Structures are given as structure tokens and as C-alpha cells.
Amino acid sequence: MRFLIVKPSSLGDIVHALFAVSDLRKAYPDAEIFWVANDSLASIVSLSPGITVIPFPRKALGKFSLGSLRGFLRQLRSTEFDAVLDFQGLLRSGLISWCARSRVRYGFANAREGATLFYTKSVELPSSLRHAADKNRYLVREFLKDRGITLTEESYDIPVEIPVAWSSEADGILSGLGWSSDKPLLAVGCSSRWESKSWSTEYFSEVLKAVSAARPEIGIWLLGSLDEASRAERVRELCGLPNVSNLAGKTSMGALAALLHRSRALFTNDSGPMHIAALLGVPCVANFGSTDDTLTGPYGPVGRHTVIHSICDKSPCFQRVCPLGDETRCCRGVSCEAVAAELLKKLS
User: Fold this and answer.
1) Sheet bearing 83-86, strands edge to edge
2) What's the confidence (pLDDT) of residue 63?
3) Which of 145, 176, 203 is the last residue of a domain?
């Protein structure tokens, strides 16, 4: 059997689909699974072993590169698939599903931009389903049910694989900090792509100082992209501690995953690295204010992760920028000591 997964973006969305693909693999352990993912995110798919990525050249197509489009379609149509599963549910992913060589194309009935026109079956989601990962898993269950297959168990701990090259890069980074490879680590994601998701630098520094006072042997590393490096540096400066290092913009996606895998916990805003950590089984203490954790919170069994909810009366506002114009609004009133205590539980 050959299956095509269509989920080009974003980082968190791809991670949520990996759980569903793991369910598909349980039903068809010998199947060949292909995945259309943005070329910049292809490495995340490789966390799940045995998947062949078909890179989608999003940036090149944004510049109207016909050569890139022809190359992508050539690779897409070089294989005949027994079924296509579209977890994205947009016009682009619907068209990709339709262009693939398959007579069976599944997607969500509530897909947008007319994507349902390209499916052979549109799956209605129960209103009780909230989390994105659960919705993806339901689509797979419906596909399997139509083939007389029922999964008896869904696991939150799915097979993942950290490539040797990623681990080696992580070793080099830790060595450069003067930290041993077995040093206990706390990962910190103090920024996010949405301004409204980024709780204040003062809040993060106060929590980290309390954690360090109790566990001075813990190595605290700040993650993020190059664009987020200045915010991470501000947190490091406010902490003023020798065991806090700013690695934002200094790791590849692979090294980020390897370092998260080695960390005992992640303290974070709602962000892509939060979803990678959850996939790897790393306990998260996650801040949610402008978004809803029941939809996109850290995925895992009850008790593994802890969500810190904003007490702002506008939460969740789902706005990229705080509608009240106050960066400190989400974390105002939240006890830094209580958050630190929750992190210390995860670290132990």
C-alpha cells in the first residue's frame, strides 16, 4: 500500500498530523508513506521514521517559478497512491490531492476555500472534537473504518527518531557552552510568531530565577529563531545567571529537536517548538492567553503538560497583536512562584 499525506505547513500543524500518520502505520505497518511538506519544514517530518518527503517549494512558487512547479508536479505524479489524506483543508492542498495519482482522496468536510471539491470523501468531524491532533486522528479512523479496520488504542507516545547528525550538532552546541552531554536541561521558548503569544520578558526572567535558585545545576537554554534572538537575550540579561544561555538563532531545526529531546522540560509560549517537545514526550509548562489550549495546546496524556492560563478577560482573543496594546496583560496576575513550582515538578 502507498499513501500520500498532504500537510505542507505549519510546524505545529505538521507535528499534529504525525500522530494520525502513526495510527495509519499501525493499521498498515508495511505501507509506503509519502508526505507533501514545505521544503523548509521537511526535516520535521523525518522525526517519524520511514516517511518519504515530497518537498513543496512554497517560496519559489511565491515568485512564480514555473520550473519549480513542474518539478514538484513531476515528483508528485511519479508514484501511484492507494489513497491521499489531506489534513490541511485549503485550496492549495485540495489541488495537490487532486493532482496526485490516486482515485481515493479523503479530507475534512469543513475544509475551506473549496478544497472539498477535490475529495472523493469529505469527513464530518464530531462537534465534541477540539484538539487539532484529535481531528487528524479521526480522519484516519474514518478512512480505516471504511476498510473494515478498527484501531483499539491510540497512543500519545509514537515512534520518533533523532538522526545521528542532529545529535552530533547538539553535542557540539553543549560543548561550546561548556556543558556536559548529560547535564540536566530546561528549554525555554520565550517568544512566538504572534506578538500576542509572547508573554513578557520580565515574567520569564522571574520564573527562571526562582527555578535556578532551587536547582542551580540545571542548564537553561533559550530557543528561538534569529528574529527572536533579541527577545531571548533580554530574558538572559534580566536573569543575570551563569547557567542561562541564549541559543535563539544558533540552532538548526534538527539541533533544536535534539536539544529538546535531551531536555527534562520546556517552559514556553504557544509555539512550534512546544509541539515538537510534546511529540518527543517532553513535559511542557505552556503559557496561553491569546489562543486556546483545547485547540492547539501541548498534546499528551493527562498530567504530562501544564497550561498557564491568562486571567485577562479578553482571553482567548485570537489576535496577533494584543487588542489592549499591553504586552504584560496576559501574564498580569499570574504567580511566577507558582509557575516555577510547576516547572520544578517537571524537572524532577
Assistant:
1) 51-56, 32-38, 2-6, 83-86, 105-108, 121-123
2) 63
3) 145
